[in-house]
């Protein structure tokens, strides 16, 4: 906990577009500060999507980034909203603007289901 995933379209998969390392470090700091998570518990999985489609077929002029943060239940709605806003601000600073590319960035913070379990080896 927390369970963090960053889904993004392939158009951002170059070193000049998405600063994954910097984003993950800053995101973990925000999760610790805002949601009182333990630093050593923060792990982020980046998943590249080959293609994305909207109402009309999307081309390479659109990029999508969606961040999902799953936390154990107990955080207030205000805390979750503050964390979501922080994530969006971090995306503004860690995804470089590119000529001709429209960035669609979103984030959500949700409670993990009570059935959530994990193990480490």
TrEMBL record:
Isomerase is among the record's keywords = yes
Q: Which InterPro entries match?
A: 5-COMe_2-OHmuconate_Isoase, Tautomerase/MIF_sf
> Which residue ranges does UniProt annotate as crossing the membrane?
none
Q: Which UniProt keywords apply?
A: Isomerase
Would I find Amino-acid biosynthesis among this entry's keywords? Answer: no
The residue range of the signal peptide is none
GO terms (molecular function) for this protein are: 5-carboxymethyl-2-hydroxymuconate delta-isomerase activity
Q: Which PANTHER family match?
A: 4-HYDROXYPHENYLACETATE CATABOLISM PROTEIN
Its protein name is Isomerase
